[in-house]
């Protein structure tokens, strides 16, 4: 019996390290090539539109708008923001409605390889993949992929496709206000349109631009220079 259990554990270990090796090689490959699809795109109920744009072609205020709106500690954390998770847990303990604590890295991992939902299994896989992306890709590549695979509308993936759809120009020509307008779509992209924002979302745009000013134009420079 003991020998049988050892055999099962040895087989599971063999399968696990082979899977981890293949995953590492796969992520290494994706570090250097444009991504034309993701798990979320394949699961989209709408026709998918996506146009890849190199991060070096995007104005710094486009990058800053997304970070200011979604994950202001992106340059500091290592894929999972422990302090943000603690705040969410405290809010729940106090009876407040919980807000999301997913980092840009986690959102990238989820969009790339996982599925929609809020199960503990998916969140655990998301956290593990986020740590892997931080090690294998680094911050600049993570931000580049995020900007190219995040959903900005029904079947509209990536900031370039969103810019062309909503503003009829390349994301490389977006103004600061337009970048902030796109940034406020991200929590509920299928229900929002930057050309027809509610008063609440208009205030959210103002808030994002204020956060961008506070963070400063050089906030992302250290990770972009790497």
Named CATH topology: Penicillin binding protein transpeptidase fold
Quickly give the structural class: mainly alpha
Number of helical stretches of at least 4 residues: 11
Cα-atom Rg, whole angstroms? 19 Å
Assembly context of the chains: single chain
- CATH hierarchy class name: Mainly Alpha
In the CATH hierarchy, the architecture is Orthogonal Bundle
| H and E string | HHEHHHHHEEHHHH
Low-confidence blocks of residues = 88-99
Strands, count: 3
Fraction of helical residues: 55-70%
Full CATH superfamily name: Biosynthetic peptidoglycan transglycosylase-like
How confident overall, as mean pLDDT?
A: 90
What is the count of structural domains? 1
Distance between the termini: 53 Å
Describe the structure.
- Helix 3 runs parallel beside helix 9, helix 3 (60-70) crosses helix 10 and helix 5 crosses helix 6 (120-136).
- The chain contains eleven helices and three strands; from the N terminus they run H-H-E-H-H-H-H-H-E-E-H-H-H-H.
- Strands 1-3-2 form a three-stranded mixed sheet, covered by helices on one side.
- With 226 residues, it is mainly alpha-helical.
- It has one domain (35-224): Orthogonal Bundle (Penicillin binding protein transpeptidase fold).
- Helices cover 58% and strands 3% of the residues.
- The longest helix has 29 residues, at 2-30.
- It has helices spanning 2-30, 39-42, 60-70, 82-93, 104-113, 120-136, 139-149, 159-167, 176-183, 199-215, 221-224; strands at residues 49-50, 151-153, 156-157.
